[in-house]
Protein backbone atom coordinates (compact mmCIF):
# COMPACT_ATOMS: atom_id res chain seq x y z
CA UNK A 1 0.00 0.00 0.00
CA UNK A 2 1.30 3.48 -0.83
CA UNK A 3 2.73 5.55 2.01
CA UNK A 4 0.34 8.42 1.29
CA UNK A 5 -2.66 6.09 1.60
CA UNK A 6 -1.45 4.63 4.89
CA UNK A 7 -0.62 8.11 6.22
CA UNK A 8 -4.06 9.39 5.20
CA UNK A 9 -5.75 6.53 7.05
CA UNK A 10 -3.78 7.15 10.23
CA UNK A 11 -4.47 10.88 9.94
CA UNK A 12 -8.19 10.23 9.46
CA UNK A 13 -8.25 8.08 12.58
CA UNK A 14 -6.46 10.77 14.55
CA UNK A 15 -8.70 13.58 13.34
CA UNK A 16 -11.79 11.52 14.18
CA UNK A 17 -10.44 10.89 17.69
CA UNK A 18 -9.53 14.56 18.10
CA UNK A 19 -13.06 15.58 17.08
CA UNK A 20 -14.49 13.14 19.58
CA UNK A 21 -12.31 14.59 22.36
CA UNK A 22 -12.80 18.20 21.21
CA UNK A 23 -9.09 18.90 20.72
CA UNK A 24 -8.83 19.17 16.93
CA UNK A 25 -7.27 22.65 17.05
CA UNK A 26 -4.66 21.56 19.58
CA UNK A 27 -3.79 18.45 17.56
CA UNK A 28 -3.45 20.62 14.46
CA UNK A 29 -0.98 22.83 16.35
CA UNK A 30 0.94 19.72 17.42
CA UNK A 31 1.15 18.46 13.85
CA UNK A 32 2.36 21.84 12.58
CA UNK A 33 4.99 21.94 15.33
CA UNK A 34 6.09 18.38 14.49
CA UNK A 35 6.42 19.23 10.78
CA UNK A 36 8.28 22.46 11.48
CA UNK A 37 10.72 20.69 13.83
CA UNK A 38 11.42 17.96 11.27
CA UNK A 39 11.89 20.57 8.52
CA UNK A 40 14.31 22.59 10.65
CA UNK A 41 16.27 19.54 11.81
CA UNK A 42 17.17 17.41 8.81
CA UNK A 43 19.02 14.85 10.95
CA UNK A 44 15.84 14.09 12.91
CA UNK A 45 13.85 13.54 9.71
CA UNK A 46 16.54 11.25 8.29
CA UNK A 47 16.71 9.30 11.55
CA UNK A 48 12.93 8.70 11.59
CA UNK A 49 13.00 7.37 8.03
CA UNK A 50 16.09 5.20 8.56
CA UNK A 51 15.11 1.50 8.58
CA UNK A 52 18.36 0.49 10.31
CA UNK A 53 17.57 2.40 13.51
CA UNK A 54 15.42 0.31 15.86
CA UNK A 55 11.85 1.44 16.54
CA UNK A 56 12.48 1.59 20.30
CA UNK A 57 15.42 3.96 19.76
CA UNK A 58 13.33 6.15 17.44
CA UNK A 59 10.53 6.26 19.99
CA UNK A 60 12.95 7.29 22.75
CA UNK A 61 14.20 10.15 20.57
CA UNK A 62 10.65 11.23 19.63
CA UNK A 63 9.67 11.17 23.29
CA UNK A 64 12.75 13.16 24.33
CA UNK A 65 12.26 15.81 21.65
CA UNK A 66 8.46 16.17 21.70
CA UNK A 67 7.27 14.61 24.98
CA UNK A 68 6.93 17.82 26.98
CA UNK A 69 5.77 19.98 24.07
CA UNK A 70 2.90 18.00 22.57
CA UNK A 71 -0.51 16.98 23.86
CA UNK A 72 -0.44 13.60 25.66
CA UNK A 73 -3.00 12.31 23.15
CA UNK A 74 -0.65 13.18 20.28
CA UNK A 75 2.23 11.46 22.04
CA UNK A 76 0.10 8.35 22.66
CA UNK A 77 -0.80 8.29 18.98
CA UNK A 78 2.87 8.62 18.00
CA UNK A 79 3.72 5.78 20.37
CA UNK A 80 1.09 3.49 18.81
CA UNK A 81 2.36 4.32 15.33
CA UNK A 82 5.95 3.64 16.43
CA UNK A 83 4.97 0.31 18.01
CA UNK A 84 3.40 -0.74 14.72
CA UNK A 85 6.69 -0.02 12.96
CA UNK A 86 5.31 2.96 11.05
CA UNK A 87 7.46 5.63 12.68
CA UNK A 88 9.08 6.25 9.28
CA UNK A 89 5.80 7.84 8.07
CA UNK A 90 5.09 10.10 11.05
CA UNK A 91 5.90 13.18 9.00
CA UNK A 92 3.58 12.00 6.21
CA UNK A 93 0.84 11.43 8.79
CA UNK A 94 1.31 14.98 10.12
CA UNK A 95 1.04 16.40 6.58
CA UNK A 96 -2.08 14.31 5.87
CA UNK A 97 -3.60 15.43 9.18
CA UNK A 98 -3.08 19.10 8.29
CA UNK A 99 -4.60 18.54 4.85
CA UNK A 100 -7.67 16.86 6.35
CA UNK A 101 -7.93 19.63 8.96
CA UNK A 102 -7.97 22.21 6.15
CA UNK A 103 -10.78 20.31 4.41
CA UNK A 104 -12.68 20.09 7.68
CA UNK A 105 -12.41 23.86 8.20
CA UNK A 106 -13.00 24.75 4.52
CA UNK A 107 -9.53 26.25 4.08
CA UNK A 108 -7.96 26.24 0.64
CA UNK A 109 -4.21 26.72 0.27
CA UNK A 110 -2.88 28.39 -2.84
CA UNK A 111 0.50 29.65 -4.02
CA UNK A 112 0.93 32.68 -6.21
CA UNK A 113 4.20 33.47 -7.95
CA UNK A 114 4.75 37.03 -9.17
CA UNK A 115 7.66 39.28 -10.10
CA UNK A 116 6.83 41.95 -7.51
CA UNK A 117 5.09 41.89 -4.12
CA UNK A 118 1.29 41.80 -4.32
CA UNK A 119 -0.80 44.82 -3.48
CA UNK A 120 -3.67 44.34 -1.05
CA UNK A 121 -6.19 44.77 -3.89
CA UNK A 122 -4.52 42.10 -6.04
CA UNK A 123 -4.24 39.76 -3.06
CA UNK A 124 -7.99 40.10 -2.45
CA UNK A 125 -8.77 39.47 -6.13
CA UNK A 126 -6.63 36.32 -6.19
CA UNK A 127 -8.24 35.02 -3.00
CA UNK A 128 -11.69 35.55 -4.53
CA UNK A 129 -10.58 33.73 -7.69
CA UNK A 130 -9.42 30.76 -5.57
CA UNK A 131 -12.73 30.79 -3.64
CA UNK A 132 -14.74 30.61 -6.86
CA UNK A 133 -12.49 27.86 -8.27
CA UNK A 134 -12.67 25.66 -5.19
CA UNK A 135 -15.74 26.68 -3.23
CA UNK A 136 -13.60 27.05 -0.11
CA UNK A 137 -14.66 29.28 2.78
CA UNK A 138 -11.26 30.82 3.43
CA UNK A 139 -8.06 31.00 1.42
CA UNK A 140 -4.48 30.87 2.68
CA UNK A 141 -2.34 32.49 0.01
CA UNK A 142 1.40 31.82 -0.04
CA UNK A 143 3.25 34.48 -1.99
CA UNK A 144 6.51 33.86 -3.84
CA UNK A 145 8.53 36.01 -6.17
CA UNK A 146 10.34 34.92 -9.32
CA UNK A 147 12.17 37.47 -11.45
CA UNK A 148 12.11 35.12 -14.48
CA UNK A 149 8.36 35.62 -14.98
CA UNK A 150 8.74 39.07 -16.61
CA UNK A 151 5.15 39.95 -15.61
CA UNK A 152 1.80 38.44 -14.65
CA UNK A 153 1.41 35.59 -12.18
CA UNK A 154 1.26 31.83 -11.75
CA UNK A 155 -1.44 30.59 -9.37
CA UNK A 156 -1.32 27.03 -7.99
CA UNK A 157 -4.32 25.57 -6.18
CA UNK A 158 -4.01 21.91 -5.29
CA UNK A 159 -3.12 20.11 -8.50
CA UNK A 160 -4.32 22.96 -10.73
CA UNK A 161 -2.18 25.75 -12.13
CA UNK A 162 -3.26 28.98 -13.79
CA UNK A 163 -0.35 30.47 -15.70
CA UNK A 164 -1.15 34.09 -16.50
CA UNK A 165 2.49 35.10 -16.79
CA UNK A 166 3.94 37.13 -19.61
CA UNK A 167 6.57 34.43 -20.14
CA UNK A 168 3.83 31.85 -20.77
CA UNK A 169 2.00 34.15 -23.15
CA UNK A 170 5.22 34.82 -25.09
CA UNK A 171 5.86 31.08 -25.33
CA UNK A 172 2.31 30.54 -26.63
CA UNK A 173 2.84 33.29 -29.21
CA UNK A 174 6.19 31.77 -30.27
CA UNK A 175 4.55 28.35 -30.72
CA UNK A 176 1.73 29.91 -32.75
CA UNK A 177 4.24 31.55 -35.11
CA UNK A 178 6.19 28.29 -35.47
CA UNK A 179 3.05 26.43 -36.57
From TrEMBL:
Name by which UniProt lists this protein: ATP synthase subunit delta
Keywords: ATP synthesis, Cell membrane, CF(1), Hydrogen ion transport, Ion transport, Membrane, Transport
Topology within the bilayer: Peripheral membrane protein
Domain of life (superkingdom): Bacteria
Function: This protein is part of the stalk that links CF(0) to CF(1). It either transmits conformational changes from CF(0) to CF(1) or is implicated in proton conduction.
Main location: membrane
HAMAP family given in the database record: ATP_synth_delta_bact
Lineage, uppermost ranks: Bacteria, Pseudomonadati, Bacteroidota, Cytophagia, Cytophagales
Gene name as annotated: atpH
Family listed: Belongs to the ATPase delta chain family.
InterPro entries reported in the protein's UniProt record: ATP_synth_OSCP/delta_N_sf, ATPase_OSCP/dsu
SUPFAM superfamilies, A to Z: N-terminal domain of the delta subunit of the F1F0-ATP synthase (SSF47928)
Cellular compartment(s): Cell membrane; Membrane
Amino acid sequence: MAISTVAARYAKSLIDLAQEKGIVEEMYGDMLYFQRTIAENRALGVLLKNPIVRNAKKWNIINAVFGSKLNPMTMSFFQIVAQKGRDNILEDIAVAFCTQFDKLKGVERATVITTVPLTEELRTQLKEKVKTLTGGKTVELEEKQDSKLIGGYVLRVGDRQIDASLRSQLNDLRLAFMN
